[in-house]
Specification:
The protein is mainly α. The chain contains 15 helices and no strands.
Amino acid sequence: MIFSPVGVIAFSLLAFPITYGFNHLMKYTGDDHRIVFGAAVLVIAILGIVLFLLSTYQQQRPKDKLFYVFVLLSFTGVIDLITSLEIDGYIRGFMTTYLKEGEPYLKTSHCTLACYYDGTVHVVMYIAMAVRCLQNLDYRNLALYWSGSMTNIVLVFLIGNVIGKYSDDVKASYLLTIPYLLVPVVVGYVMMKRERKVKFDPKRIEAAHQQDILTRPIDVLLITFMIFAIFITTLRGLAALDCTWPAVQGYLARYEPYIGDPVAYPRVQMLIYLFYYVPYYAATICGLLFPGQRWMLDWSILHAGATSQAQVIHMCASFHKRTLSAFRPPMLGRRGFFFINMGLQTVPQILAWRCHSNPEFFQELPVDKEKKAK
């Protein structure tokens, strides 16, 4: 049955026969994007109804309702994997009609890599979270990591589609992506409302609060990186805004010409960095300097998930075969390109590890909690 680890995996793999049948069925309906949209909605609705009926007649079903969300997402994640494999020519006859009449912009390098990421990394997360729901185990941190990753990937996708060179190809199927923005936001909110299953010793909290910044070398290095990240992220954001300063144009030409690609996805990603991540970096510096910032525990995971996805796709898309050679990093600047982007991808993971390896530093003192209660 579906209410087992094997069942969850088997349900996600149904994407292969269903997409194959869907693609061949669409050959007899004509080239109408509205029919493609309606058929896609119908398939998802039927699968949702099947999950509901199975849960109704199954006695030993999971108490956590998010289980059904993760199972359904694992199915759509495998569809993304199928899509990317077909775009790159590894398989045929699964998504041909949908790529032509539904979302042709999926053939861009950025979207192809996004489908690969969702169909591999995210699918593993969906299955892991579904299994932990079955076993009544905690998956709070994993869900937050996925929430940050999925929110970023969909936000860039939605905005890039309507402002880039493929804006004229936006059709009804575009609406299918909107739930993928709402679901991770809701899941992230629900997870942040859940209490952590960790109890802290008041004495250890007091001891952690008494540590000076100079006695915390990892925090000093993290603060140094945040200052660097603010600088480089601002530079990339200005490049996305077509700033004509020589330093900005020099960076764009030497290291990251892909930001100027007319598909607009890298431009949108850089602007998200500028308007959302720069304030986060500044707040993180304060969180590492002043103890008792509880928000750091959750937001470090959210940001780690978002930057991991953003940087992997940005780096891979910069070298993808569908990216024009004019927008690929030049040979002389590739060391700098990898140093900058690997830093922006790796250090947030280290920050999340640091926050959860010594969480007492970010807890409020018991005295402070009593004052707030009064």
